[in-house]
Amino acid sequence: MPKRRQKRAGRDAVATGVDKGGKALAAAAALAGGTHAYAEVVRFENSGEFEWRPQECDGHVWLDITKPADQQTGQRGPTSFSQWYYYGVCNDPEKAGNYMYAGGSGIDGARWVQADGYGGTLDGLKGGTLIGPDSAWGDRSTFSMYRSQCCYENDWGPLGAIAYAGVQFRLNGQVHYGYIHAEMTDPRAAQLKALAWGYESEPNTPIEAGAGGVKCTGKEKLKARCKPQREAFRITAAVKKALPGEEVTFRLDGDPDTDQSGLVNNKGKAKTRFDDVSGGDHTVEVIGCDVAARTRCD
Questions:
Q1: CA pair distance 294, 265, nearest whole angstrom
Q2: For the whole prediction, is pTM greater than 0.70?
Q3: Number of separate helices (H) and strands (E) present in the chain
Q4: pLDDT digits (tens, 9 = 90+) for 96-107
Q5: What does the pLDDT average to over 136-147?
Q6: What is residue 11's three-state secondary structure?
Q7: Is 221-297 assigned to CATH 3.40.50.261?
Q8: How many other C-beta atoms are found inside a 10 Å radius of the C-beta of residue 172?
Q9: Cβ neighbours for 91, distance < 8 A, ≥ 6 positions apart
Q10: How far apart are CA 208 and CA 130, in angstroms?
């Protein structure tokens, strides 16, 4: 495992003040440049405690958006969401793909923001996208994420693409809006890995995708390069066009144990390095800002 230079304290309570038991809420804040305002955003990080995986044909692993990763049971509920991999062995090979399900039922139950013009295909939203009553909600609680046959395209993105699913659900009988921050792990079947999730605690209040997490400009650029280091390798990563004064977290190959923090300078730049890295292909990402870079050590 590569050596870490430094790791930010309190990774289980990143930016929001939500502890691992899920007890604290984020402070109220105004949406930058807009007229909407947060009440209180609840956000949970997933450092690997919970695996949100699709099941073939039977069974679902449900993600409850109101609970932290270490309290997830995988069971269905009115505030939960799942992936269901409908493979050809189930019934019809022409309908193979990943289908997204919401625990609530019907128009007034849980729903997804769908991609425009794709008849219910789930849309991958950019950070900062406003999720609320005016979003492109579908008319049912089940949506096709992707059909891997022939003519369908994956609206989320290629391998490693990170985006947000906008969700709507009912809590105590009232409508709430939220998001699931996820990474594409299999573009052909459109399987997603949940990185974090959050929701607006105030009923009927819009929320920005990614609210409660690290603040990003949406224009970040990340580069990574690898050089030999004694009997191993060193990867240097640098991000630019980030928000000055913000602390960003770099992660290597999706492993939370490699997390390193860096303070963005007044030019919008921050950098770090990973020592004693093994050979082969590697990916560095800036957590929460939907940006990643690949490099090869050989």
A1: 23
A2: no
A3: 0, 19
A4: 455 566 665 443
A5: 50
A6: helix
A7: no
A8: 7
A9: none
A10: 4
